[in-house]
Design a protein that fits this description.
alpha/beta, 23 helices
Length: 553
């Protein structure tokens, strides 16, 4: 890939020295490496800022201050933008606006941009037609449709009479792409790889109820049309009725067996198909049936917090997380700095890498290279639907302890800290190093008081209204104190009450008796009887002057 950067630079100078250029690369890392090399070629040119189409001054400085990624900030100063899913949303928005307004000339992006956003340019350069597949652990070719979509971005109808597309490939593939450009290949179906998940969604919605419904569903797909026109592509021996029926029957049978083994469906002897709890959850949260199978096989009532985190990381959605060349070494080094070991897991496994990235998020620890930050963002983006699915499955199994732990993991992901750590870390600008500053001498007794949680801080502030300012003023700026105070004022004040009820033989429900012992309330539960826990949550108001209360049960 690195050897293609100079041809990219020459292509820009030859075909579009002054008009917008889109450069498509295979990965997020390649966006950064390509930009660095292009800046290197600009540095030895007479005009290193030739791609920057705005005056260097206050307007540029103001824009650059809004950019969070330091690499992107540097690239934009040379008129080069990068665009991929790992960037902060605001950084992507700034880059898009600058390119659309033609204030920067070059935009380097991953192939997903070709499908997601319409940014036509005079010149499109496709830097390589391969990408690294972390699941297969090798480089594979881009789908032809992706290459077509990238090329289609060349040309701006309102500005240009023509567009230029340059495809950089290895010599052995030149003839293939030359033939492809002049004799396009037909578009084939990709349904074969995901038929079980599609069938599960239809079964869960009630559209499919029998095996015959499955076959009828398949006859309405694009795959069915292509079977007759290109049977060899789908390994079909012939297009006569017998071969087609055998192919579809085997395909449906195999898919239903996979769904049944994952406990997503049940198939009756009569051919009727019923959707089960796991199948409904998978359909609702758009999860793969393999993930449900993993939950079914591994989930146990003995699981603790760490085991549930590992279970989440074993979800099939994470199997495609890229583990690049030599990243197994980086994973091993990262594991040594994190609190929970990976056991006997392979450091080349995407699930192991996922487990490490979650730990680094909870521990707020540094990552070895920039690519890990974008990888962690993609991991976290999927976390909530996976955890919500886990919670639904666990709750359906009446596993109270595991349900509470899963809720804690949801909160850990949201707040980026371990459940065992101080809740003060949820406050803006507060780090582990600054926790030591939450100590003060109580005025009457001069006794040193240490605050370890937000609830303790709120309680202490009620007694001493200006306590927060006194604690923080020596260690935080006025703006940081303002942010912390605003955050605390937005917190709801809740009062939680609960009671137990027991079902008696005469179907009467009575409140469980209690007694006080050593300052604790003890509940007398009746052995062998069903009990109901009634929880009442009352919002008594917020810190910012909210009055009144609201109760939910």
């Amino acid at each position: 890939m690195a050897t293609m950067n100079k041809p990219v630079f020459k292509s820009i100078l030859s075909h579009s020295p002054h008009k917008p250029v889109l450069v498509f690369v295979s990965s997020r890392r390649q966006t950064r490496l390509t930009a660095i090399d292009l800046i290197g070629y600009l540095a030895i040119d007479n005009n290193p800022k030739q791609w920057l189409k705005m005056e260097e001054g206050e307007s540029l400085d103001r824009l650059l201050k809004e950019v969070q990624d330091p690499n992107l900030r540097n690239f934009l100063s040379f008129g080069i933008g990068v665009h991929h899913a790992g960037l902060h949303e605001n950084d992507r928005k700034v880059t898009e606006e600058l390119f659309v307004e033609q204030k920067i000339q070059i935009l380097i992006a991953t192939s997903t941009l070709a499908w997601g956003v319409n940014f036509p340019a005079h010149l499109v350069v496709v830097k390589g037609t391969e990408y690294y597949d972390g699941k297969l652990k090798r480089y594979v070719d881009f789908p032809i449709t992706d290459v077509l979509q990238m090329m289609g971005r060349a040309g701006r109808p309102q500005f240009d009479n023509e567009g230029v597309a340059v495809i950089l490939v290895h010599n052995i593939k030149k003839d293939f792409y030359r033939k492809f450009l002049y004799e396009p290949f037909p578009v084939e179906s990709s349904l074969l790889e995901v038929i079980p998940d599609h069938l599960n969604a239809e079964i869960a919605s009630g559209s499919i109820k029998t095996r015959q419904d499955c076959i009828d569903y398949m006859t309405w797909t694009y795959l069915f049309r292509r079977l007759f026109l290109n049977p060899s592509y789908y390994k079909l021996e012939g297009v006569d009725e017998r071969n087609i029926n055998t192919f579809l029957s085997n395909l449906i049978g195999d898919s239903l067996r996979k769904l049944e083994s994952a406990s997503c469906i049940s198939v009756e002897e009569t051919g009727e198909i019923q959707s089960l709890q796991y199948g409904k959850v998978a359909s609702f949260y758009y999860l793969k049936h393999g993930t449900m199978g993993t939950f079914k096989q591994q989930l146990s009532g003995e699981y603790g917090l760490v085991e549930l985190i590992r279970l989440m990381c074993d979800a099939e959605e994470y199997s495609e997380l890229p583990v690049r060349h030599n990243e197994d070494i980086l994973n091993q080094e990262l594991a040594e700095s994190l609190p929970v070991g990976v056991g006997e897991s392979s450091f080349e496994s995407p699930h192991t890498k996922t487990f490490l990235l979650y730990q680094s998020h909870f521990s707020r620890s540094d990552l070895p290279i920039a690519d890990y930050f974008t990888d962690r963002k993609s991991v976290l983006d999927q976390s909530f639907r996976i955890l919500q699915a886990m919670l639904d499955v666990i709750a359906a199994g009446s596993l109270l302890k595991q349900s509470m732990l899963t809720i804690q993991i949801l909160q850990m992901v949201s707040q980026a800290c371990w459940v065992s750590e101080s809740t003060l870390l949820m406050l803006p600008h507060v780090t582990k190093q600054s926790l030591q500053h939450f100590k003060f001498s109580h005025p009457p007794t001069k006794h040193l008081v240490e605050i370890n949680s937000i609830s303790e801080l709120l309680t202490a502030e009620v007694r001493s209204p200006h306590l927060l300012d006194e604690i923080l003023k020596e260690h935080f700026s006025s703006q940081q104190i303002s942010d912390i105070t605003a955050f605390i004022r937005r917190l709801p004040r809740l009062r939680v009450e609960f009671s137990f009820k027991v079902q008696l033989e005469n179907e009467c429900v009575e409140r469980v008796s209690t007694r006080q012992e050593s300052g604790q309330t003890l509940y007398h539960l009746v052995s062998g009887r069903e009990h109901v826990v009634e929880v009442r949550i009352r919002e008594t108001g917020r810190r910012e002057g909210m009055r009144g209360s609201r109760a939910d049960t």
